[in-house]
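Pilot study result, target chain (430 residues):
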Amino acid sequence: MIAALALPNRAAAQHAAARTLSTTERNIASAVDTHNAQALALLEQLVDINSGTTNFAGVRHVADILAAQFDSLGFTTQWVDGSSFHRAGHLMAVHKGPGPKLLIIGHLDTVFDLDNPFQKFERLDDSTARGPGVIDMKGGDIIALYALRALKDAGVLDSMNIVVVYDGDEEDAGAPLADARRTLVDAAKGASAALGFEDGAGDPRTAVIARRGDIGWLLTTTGRPAHSSQIFTSDIGAGAVYEASRILDQFYQRLSKEQYLTFNPGVVVGGTTITLDSTESVGTAAGKSNVGAQRAQVAGDIRTLSPEQLAHAKRVMRDIATHNLPHTTAALTFDDGYPPMAPTAGNKRLLAMYDRASRDLGFGPVVAVDPSRAGAADVSFVASDVPMAIDALGLSGHDDHTAKETADLRMLPVQTKRAALLMYRLTFHQ
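Predicted structure:
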């Protein structure tokens, strides 16, 4: 996966490419190399701090360390308390300058709780390291920070207008979701571009300009309870389970062939009495084989590539739910969830700029990853509010969210240089 950036003539390619860079751009790249050991040491320090989403103290500890780093660059930092949405909170850092506003997005939390045995940064060899959150996404947080430090060293940061939001609950968003993402959404107002530093598909030859949203849905059906010998009769009808089955079948028949659209019924319960906690996907059901089902519920998710595709899918699903079998009812609701990030013309332009920066640095081309390989992420909450958005600018590696989460440390300076050059050109050469 990484081999394309490690060819024998890579040094020659970088030397030739450097001739296309301005003096300031060469200074930016040189500053990244100067601070790379420092960046790696800070990455190890942050990975060794447990910041599972529900470990509020750990999330805040990571934020405090990063806040001090941003303060040293001339940013004004703020901790946004998360008690209103039942999470630790978010770190915000603002650097006001005359340039166009750029929004940088990261997150402080990981999926690894305090009781998880996977807790420490471990060097596997000279080029790889394993650790909780090393690529998802403390590596990305470090890349954004040290890209800004390189811009500071090159004497251009003072003219730049940067807002950084590092959420504390990306891996398990707080509720209400609107409150949990208000800081990020407000920060995006007036921004000319949003840059996300997730690890993406883990391939440094790709970036994300489109992500499918992740919206939950809940289907509830009812029927008339009666002896099973009377099912399908004119006064009893089909029952709740048959109505739920009809609706699911029609979902499949009418929508399953649409590209990038998926809808998954993750849990189903039905019977005389039922309970379902759709948040935890836990339910119970009680009934008898000789009694028609009185109630059924299905909880699932729906993933779409654009707001228009989501709206279309919702219309079709709601229409299906209205054509009920005899003596049944159906109610279909959708939660807020993660919105889709469509592959807009602006996003494609931003990718072209990132690709150009990578080529000019001698690191080769960057193309868009297949949206089906890009899960939901915080950048999606602002993608429709900014002219351009891109994600997966973070640290490359593999097996995130597992005890094998591993980073390719060779990509730390590569990704930092790419990001720094992109920020510079977005400010001075649009």
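One observation from the pilot: The radius of gyration is 25 Å. A full batch analysis is planned for the follow-on phase.
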